Amino acid sequence: MNSTVLQTPIVYLKGVGPNRAETLQSELGIHTYQDLINLFPNRYIDKTQYYKISQLQRTSSDVQIVGKIVNIKTVEQKKGKRLVAKFIDDTGEMELVWFRGQKWIRENLKLNIPYVIFGKANWFNGTFSMPHPEMELWEDHEKGLKIYMQPVYPSTEKLANKGITNRVTNKLIQQLFLETKGRFTETLSSGLINELSLISKAEALFNIHFPKNQELLAKAQFRLKFEELFYIQLQLISKNLMHKQKIKGYNFDKVGTLFKTFYEQHLPFELTNAQKRVIKEIRADLGSNAQMNRLLQGDVGSGKTIVALMTMLLAIDNGFQACLMAPTEILANQHFMGIKELLGDIGVNIALLTGSVKKSARRVIHEQLENGELQILIGTHALLEDKVAYKNLGLAIVDEQHRFGVAQRAKLWHKNDIPPHILVMTATPIPRTLAMSLYGDLDISTIDELPPGRKPIKTVHRYDSNRLKVFQFIRDEIKKGRQVYVVYPLIQESEALDYKDLMDGYESIARDFPLPDFQISIVHGKMKPADKDYEMERFVKGETQIMVATTVIEVGVNVPNASVMIIESAERFGLSQLHQLRGRVGRGANQSFCILMTGHKLSSDSKTRLETMVGTNDGFQIAEVDLKLRGPGDLMGTQQSGVLNLKIADIIKDNDILKTARYHALKILREDISLKRHPVILHTYTQLVKYKNIWNYIS
Fold first, then answer.
1. Which of 146, 423, 490, 572 supports an S-S bond with 550, CB 3.0-4.6 Å?
2. What is the rounded CA–CA span in Å between residue 445 and residue 303?
3. What CATH architecture is 64-146?
4. What residue stretches are annotated with the Helicase ATP-binding domain (predicted)?
5. What is the CATH number of domain 458-617?
6. What is the pTM of this model?
7. CB-count burial class (<10 Å; 0-12, 13-18, 19+) for 118
8. For the chain, what are the domain ranges?
């Protein structure tokens, strides 16, 4: 069938009309025939069996029965009336009951004519009854399209109120099949269909809506899930390959003096095998004549900063400048101080540019940047300003990349005639399935190994009733010269409540850890930046032993002497946030601890999160659990959730299908990037992009 027919507005389908069309559009986003055919059922009710009344069990399950109505009566009850019909077959009798719509139902029921009824059979007062059954005359049932496994479609309260029931939706889809004669153009090549033993597109669509049995339904689901994931992967991979072909990058072919000197004389510890592997992957990109577009992911403390610095030194050795952009001033400052310390007297000119930098200092930075004296610039969004111009920017690194919008990252591209190489970093481990779906157009490097000498953080869960023991543990750690974080949740909707929690907590800790023996810092979002920085600085210098804070310390604080993280009301945090907070300790050689404090009332999800935190320090395992608990949209934030607005596939449950789809998309594109030797796939891909049925990822 010509795909343009499927773009027909839904209002023209027999049985829809303007009012229903408006409701279908607003509630389910159904604008065209194509949208309706892609409204896939949530579940199925098995109608392959007809029961006899004598076979019914007292289980309140859905059953289908053939019989006749022999009697109808209205029964008075305390409130209103109910309509009761006596329904019989050759093995017994039961009651059909209606509490609403009685007048219309009574007028339309036919006595002593065979019906097929379907619904929940309830046992009450020694007899079976079925409230508000679905009913169809046997004659119509015989003539109609046999729907053995009845599909249950997504619905909303408004759809139900407007009379668009599951049955109506089903009838509309039947009508669509009649109008199109069930002829749907094949969308995959015969090679793929044969290799994977897939059923045809037309068969798959028919059996997803009207499956005759479980086997055909499974084949239909596999075919449609594979196709959906295949075309998303095709788009991501082709974008990556085209990018490498079309967008030329600077060739960093030389490993020069700065890189060698740093590696041989200034490296504070031996690189892990994972770091070495990642540097090798980056070097291959930088010497390929194509622009690098790589995502570097690694857990908290895995040593991404060293990799970033060594990549910057490669750029400088080849006569280029480098910049590193971080989402907050605290993090930008930390990068600046850390990298400056690592470089020592190696002779690299490095500067920091944030909103707090004074005009006179900015002027010097701008001048040195334009004349090439400044080799590394570290900063916040300030790096994106138009007046920040480089002499020769060859490498741009973006830290915590998910905190920057696409448009912001794209601005870095235009800071040189040929776009600089781009390395984006994240300390939030991304599950492999999600990475393939969200960042399939980027090359991905993973540091999955912690530096030697780092002791795993011991994590425990304690209830509020154990608080005195926890306070004693804090005293013992402080006696050893250690420092402690106490973090309270901060949730925007209840900022006043959270602020009270924080202040109550601070007062309680101040009573138990009094002056002059103990010094306490406090940091929260309502403080002026200068006051916040002052309190942070006191803790960093070791002038205070306890830092009471909200989640403002989640990123950007590096205090190797801090060995205890207490997280209050831990059940109110997400898994990734708990893991990020835990990563604030364990940065020195001492054994570190994370204590999750909660009340006794916990939801099952909260228990799963706490058990996961206690059970593992592996950020990737934690991310997988988080993905299962929250789903891809929530995990990646609203910015990217639309990307995964899948029609039938589920990236968590259909992980294996996703891998298969990616493998075949990659194989086809490597052999034939233009898809000219795969006309069916090329045509389908073009149509999907044209009608915006797959997402245009923006680089």
1. 490
2. 13
3. Beta Barrel (2.40)
4. 285-447
5. 3.40.50.300
6. 0.67
7. middle
8. 3-45+154-180, 64-146, 187-246+678-698, 257-447, 458-617
